Structures are given as structure tokens and as C-alpha cells.
Amino acid sequence: MTHGDKSRLVLPAGETALIKEAADWALSFRYDQPGEVERQAFERWRASSPAHGAAWARVQSVFQTFEQVPAEIGKGTLQALNRQQGRRRSMQLLAAMLVAAPAGWLAWRQVPAWSADIATATGEQKSMALPDGSRLVLNTASAVDVAFTASERRLRLRAGEILIETQPDPTRTDRPFLVDTPCGVVQALGTRFSVRKLDGDTCRVAVFEHAVALKPLIGQSRILQAGEQADFGPLQIEESRPVEAGQALWENGMLLARDMRLGDVIAELARHRRGVLRCDPAVAELRVTGAISLKDTDAALRLLASNLPLRIELRTPYWVTVAPRG
């Protein structure tokens, strides 16, 4: 990148070639049914150097972008490219996006690793004290910016999930405590609460003590009291519902399941595990009750398999399927 033009990322020729290879692998896994030989070949390719792994991560970030934009804009975009343009043309377009996309756009998509003030990797959690004495806990794969000024205390949730325990403003100026999200602003009213960015333009707020005010980007505000949670987007707030027992136990590395769908349990475990962890639809509706480790997902999967009619298909440590037994 030259000092005179910071709007574009200019990659060396070798990195460009790797990006194109990664794009081809991504489209293959996305739209084909690769066999074991092809999967092993991919693992060898990805593990051959750190640059190969970085190229693969960058391609995945673009796919995630299409999955997270509003449905009317992004739904089916990659599928349409593949269907209408053909595999080779789709690979070229995807590679071009990765090689020549605006640097700011790519940085926004890759915030957890690149530009957030505070971030956690997949499977990592972090707890810290904020400048005002409030406590901030980041869940897996989360990213936050901290912007405390003389007039306000503000966090910006860029990805993932956070838990906050606010303290009175030590400056005695009653600066508001605010959390910016893509959906709107959450204002603490002397409280303990969590904020999670879900797929698409939806966020979830759960209040464990006192209250918070939800303020969508456009739409009516609402107060959530202790024991309530609600999903909200830029335009509206959904109906509130009770906070589930043990909902904040992720802070201690545990998932408390109470008659929970196995598919939902596996989705939560997948947030804490590198690679692909999927649940076969044939067993997704099985019900799970119990305390499940989020810190040791291998142990969690073994526990599920020992108590339910399941088998764990381990193609590689990074490609795991929970399937019916037998």
C-alpha cells in the first residue's frame, strides 16, 4: 500500500495467487459435495503455510459479509453468481473482491483480528475493567471499541457478545453509559446486562440487574427491566421475553441447556470452536438438558454422544458433524 492511496489494498502477486486458490476452494465447499480425498487435499493446502491459512480466513470473511447483510440485498448473491456466471467466473469475481476491495470495508469485516480496541479469538474470553471501574467481559470471537470522553462513556460492539457491569461515574458528571450496535444504541440505567450481535441486522439484549433503554436507529425506544430480554433491529424492538436461567453462564465457560434443541446447542458450541461444526438435521430436534462446557468443546461433544443416540463424525479437527448413531 502506498502512502498516497490508502483506499485500496494492493497485494503482492504471490498473495493474489493464494487468494484466488482460496476462492476456488471456498466455492467448491460451498456448492459441491467434496469427497474425503478433496477434503484432505484442502487441509494440506491450508496447512502448508501461514499465508495459506490467512488467505482462507480472508475468503471466509467475504462469505460472512454476504450472509450478514440485509436479506433483500445479500440473500442469494453468491448463489446467483455461481448459477449465472459459472464456477470459473464466480471464482474470478470473488477473488477480485478480495484483492481490490476498499481497505476500510475489509477492515470492518475483519475487526476482531485487525482494528478493534479489544477483541477475542474463537474460543477465547476476556474480562477487564473499564476506565470508570465498570467491568466488561467479551465472549468468543467478539470485538469492541472503547470511546470514553468528558461527556459520555461509550462502547461500540463490532462483533460477538459482551457482558457489562456498570459502576457510578467517578467523575460525578453522570456521563451516560452507551453501547453502540449496528441496530441502535443500548443505554445502561445502572445495571448488569449483555449485548449480542446476531446474524443479519439483529441484536439481543438481556438485562440481569436494574434496567436498560433500547434505542433503534429508527423507531420507538423501550425500557427493558431486570429479567427481560429482547431482540431488536434498526427499525423496531421485538416483544420482550424472560431471561433464561443461566443465560450469562457463558462468562464461566458453561452453557446451561434446559430442554434445548440439539441443533441450537451445536450452534452455540460452534461459536466457541475453530472450523466447521454442524448438526445433521436428522438429530437437530433432539432435546438436551444439562450443563455443557464451552471451553472444551471436544468434551462437550463426547458428553452429548454418550447421552443421546449420536455419533461424532470427525473428518478433521476442523470439520466435525454430529450425526445419528448407527
Low-pLDDT residue intervals, each spanning 5 or more residues: 1-12, 65-85, 99-113
CATH fold-level name of the largest domain = Jelly Rolls
Number of domains: 3
N/C terminus separation: 55 Å
> How many E strands?
19
Radius of gyration: 21 Å
Rounded mean pLDDT score: 80
Shape: globular
Spatial strand order of the main sheet: 1-4-5-7-8-11-12
Which percent range describes the beta-strand content?
25-35%
The string of secondary-structure elements, in order, is: HHHHHHHHEEEEEEEEEEEEEEEHEEHEE
Main structural class: alpha+beta
Specify the biggest β-sheet. Answer: 7 strands, mixed
Range of helix content: 25-40%
Quaternary form: single chain
Q: Which architecture of the largest domain would the CATH scheme give at its second level?
A: Sandwich
Number of continuous helical runs: 10
